[in-house]
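Let's do one together. I've listed all components of the complex below, 442 residues spread over four lines.
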Amino acid sequence: MPSSVQRKRVRKTPAARRAEIVAAAARVALTEGLECITLRRIAEDLDVRPGLISHYFPSAEELVAEAFGQAAGRELDALLPNERTEGSPAHYLARFFALATGAAYDDVSRLWINARHLSRYRPALRERVGVQEAAWRERFTAVIEDGVRDDGFRTDSPVLTAIHILVVLDGLGAQANSRTVDRPQAVALLAVTTAERELGLESGTLSRLADELTEADLARD
Amino acid sequence: MPSSVQRKRVRKTPAARRAEIVAAAARVALTEGLECITLRRIAEDLDVRPGLISHYFPSAEELVAEAFGQAAGRELDALLPNERTEGSPAHYLARFFALATGAAYDDVSRLWINARHLSRYRPALRERVGVQEAAWRERFTAVIEDGVRDDGFRTDSPVLTAIHILVVLDGLGAQANSRTVDRPQAVALLAVTTAERELGLESGTLSRLADELTEADLARD
DNA sequence: TTGCTTATTGGTCGAGCACTCAATAGCATC
DNA sequence: GATGCTATTGAGTGCTCGACCAATAAGCAA
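Okay, and this is what the predicted structure of the assembly comes out as:
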């Protein structure tokens, strides 16, 4: 009985298989890039035939868009969780900056650059980028509004402040693929410095909070 | 005498042909993207055979890197000319921001996103990106140093200020491919506002100068 | 005019890509 | 145990890409 000549088929429910495909694609998106999401590559990861991927995603572009959405969405949830049951807004922001300053954030920066470029040619992806931009912006805006109410943040416009911080983050992240040597400390801290200034916080407030966070605080859920 | 069956050959000096190829590739890079620089595409633009491009650039990646370098370098020269025979540093900066805020700058933003992403996979391009980053940074630093000397700019570190401005520009440019609706004025002015603050200039100084520039001032040389 | 150098051509190769579709087999239901 | 639905396969199509190379002809030098 030849085992290799005849493939063993594993039959799953459409919902489960689809989720599995998107998860595999999101993993590739985050680690290797959106261009590496090919029918063959994802099929190989899941040990199925390429035709099956086409069955669930008649257009490969749709899978790329979905993969980006899932990857970016999950990262946002890990960096700035939606439910803030404990901890002040300042602590949540500090945790974000602690994570976003580390090397582990490079994958996220790369993903965003990747998506922003590729969306030039892929309308479906472009639409997803817009959705995720809005999600990140709104998540930040909400934290800032909480901080204005409870934590002494001072800003005329929470949403403009959120955008300002995100613009600086994007600008710093732009170098994730080319930066070889370390950058000056003042540059690495540009995002958190901008946040402190724009939120009317004493210089060093957030970065000091970020430094005090333990490994457990930073651990992803 | 069939005219189309037999191609007429135009024989040029290696230096001239090479320059012509790079110029065509740089044009494609700026208008359509670095991925569109293919042997066939450039050959068609120049009305030669693809093999000829391979002859001058045995590795296509080298041509892509060269095209980016030329395109980015020329744009820098157009936006912030090297020789400042007349006009104050503030005027030079104002002219830059006037140009960099307009829609015409979108092609430049797109080029940078493109290069920053693609350099993830292309070492030769990554190296060129580093060179151009340094060139842009140094050009800005020089203008700022001049302004500190002659024009009342105040900053502890011209180079850090230059980096800060460039980071904000990169962050704003990141949306060049996805932004569909206009952004708030305060966001569009983020770069010039950052420059004014970091250079110790009265708020509105540079943007007012930028508004006063005539078409002739903005015209490219 | 003749000859030589080499810029340029034309054709080819293999790899990787998305997409299509009839045939097959897993599995729930009866 | 038989049946029907459909998830999955296998095989194939056509496309674009970079790279390679022997043959050709442009134009300079003698």
